[in-house]
Amino acid sequence: MKAALEKLHAIDREYRYLERASAALQWDQETYLPPKGVEERAEQLALLEGIAHERLITPETGRLLGELGSVSANPRGDESLPAIERDFLRVMRRRYDRAVKLPADFVSAAARAEGLSQAAWAQARRNNDFAAFLPHLTTMIDFARKKAEYWGFGDRAAQRNSAQSLYDGLLDIYEPGMPASEIGVLFTVLRDRLAALLKKIKLCPQPDTGFLKQTFPIEAQAAFNQKLMAYLGFDQERGRLDASAHPFTTTLGADDIRITTRYFPGNLLSGLFSVIHESGHALYEMGFPAELRRTCLADGASMAIHESQSRFWENVIGRSRPFWQGLFPTLRDCFPEQLGRSSAEALYRAVNEVKPSLIRVDADEVSYSLHIILRFELEKRLISGELAPEKLPAVWREYTREYLGLESDTNQRFNDADGVLQDIHWSMGSFGYFPSYALGNLYGLQFTQKLKSDIPELESLIAAGKFERLYTWLKDTIYCWGCRLEPAELLFKVTGAQLQVNPFLEYIEGKYTELYGL
Ligand code: ZN
């Protein structure tokens, strides 16, 4: 058995290295690749993805998994194995089952189409030209539907699979065990209470944000971001920051975690909060314990759990009063002309201005989840075939009006660049990913409740810029598990409860009632 396990670990390792080589090429594509390099890069990525896929689905993997425990008898494998190895087997088995059901030519065709689609999206967004992206979007939807079908979801598989929808199959990639129906129930409550709060806030006077409407040179922003990352405890010998069209985090190795942000001279907060958000992802990736780092268990429990970490740092910490009490002097020193006459309190109020925006990543905490619920509703209908892709821009505008009270067009001109084209996800075929962001808010605040009861003096530690105890708590409570536990198991282990909307809504309602004097 020991020999079989070692062989399986070798396969996992090779697969992971190939995936990370792909990730390095993808990172390069998003940061430094010259525009004309895109086409061959898509071929390179398709080849690598194909090889990685082949490596994972060899008959040997199937034989080894069979030898090490039967799926139906015991999903976590042989009881005589150490718990960590049983978890390793469970994760490998899930990966293998998923991968083996996808034909190799499908996988490389999808990777090739994805590369071209992403490039077409970037150009279409620059040119505000949805029509140029439409054929790629249609292809991405077809690939996503086909993938879920291969996995046994969808109408044709209804008899075998208790009528789980194709969209459920895609959601399961990112949030195992959470179907659209369950998400729908949580999102309905979330939407109604957030919309009600938004309405009340709209009647209130806004904080002064005039001091932020100045020029903040990109070089100075980049210099501040380096300080910010160090302040948050991002080990810059194990990662780096670059610029890209859409901020992201990618793991190229256990000691090589890359984050990106984007810069606008007229918008200091956009780049800064992206750095805090992505650092939250990176701290999670950097915090997996040594015994997991040699395996596929060194991964987030799910996308929503990953988002719970990034959004915790971005909002619960980064948009809190004590955080800016601690950090404001450093920011002011980087921008003495622009911020010399401002204060930590003024900045705290300004970063929490509730002002619905067309752009999801620039949205405030109150309206953010409404952006996600909009995307959830639309992608559910795109995948089911109920909504034709060519109708998407019009429906997007309709929902934007209904959920956020915003018009996306000016002077009779359709502004799809700030509408349906604003996010990279669909161009990559990542349908089912968006709900993770709003679910991450829910997980995050449920974790925070427990954190605050364990460390009652958290606020004064944050004000002093002392994050060690917080970081240790996150490591000992969440990071230590990697993906050994399913999201619901992890949540239950930490908080003793199932996923709820109330901790998040109480936090939001409490914070903004105070800020806006409601
Ligand atoms: Zn994120």
Can you give me a brief rundown of this structure?
The protein has 518 residues and is mainly α. The protein has helices at 2-31, 38-56, 59-67, 83-100, 104-127, 130-150, 166-174, 180-202, 218-232, 268-286, 290-293, 303-317, 321-334, 336-339, 344-351, 365-384, 392-404, 435-454, 458-463, 468-477, 487-495, 502-516, and strands spanning 239-243, 249-253, 256-261. The protein has 22 helices and three strands.
Characterize the structure shown:
This protein has 518 residues and is mostly helical. The chain has a domain of 337 residues: Orthogonal Bundle (Neurolysin, domain 3), CATH 1.10.1370.30. The protein has 22 helices and three strands. Strands 1-3-2 form a three-stranded mixed β-sheet, with helices on both faces. Helix 10 crosses helix 12 and helix 13 crosses helix 15. The radius of gyration is 23 Å and the shape is globular. The protein starts with a helix and ends with a helix. The mean pLDDT is 93. The structure holds zinc ion. The site of zinc ion has 4 residues, from helix 10 and helix 12.
List the helices and strands and how they pair.
Blueprint: H1 2-31, H2 38-56, H3 59-67, H4 83-100, H5 104-127, H6 130-150, H7 166-174, H8 180-202, H9 218-232, E1 239-243, E2 249-253, E3 256-261, H10 268-286, H11 290-293, H12 303-317, H13 321-334, H14 336-339, H15 344-351, H16 365-384, H17 392-404, H18 435-454, H19 458-463, H20 468-477, H21 487-495, H22 502-516
Parallel strand pairs: 1-3
Antiparallel strand pairs: 2-3
Helix pairs in contact: 1-2, 1-3, 2-5, 5-6, 6-7, 8-16, 8-22, 9-10, 9-13, 10-12, 12-18, 13-15, 16-17, 16-18, 18-22
Bound molecules: zinc ion.
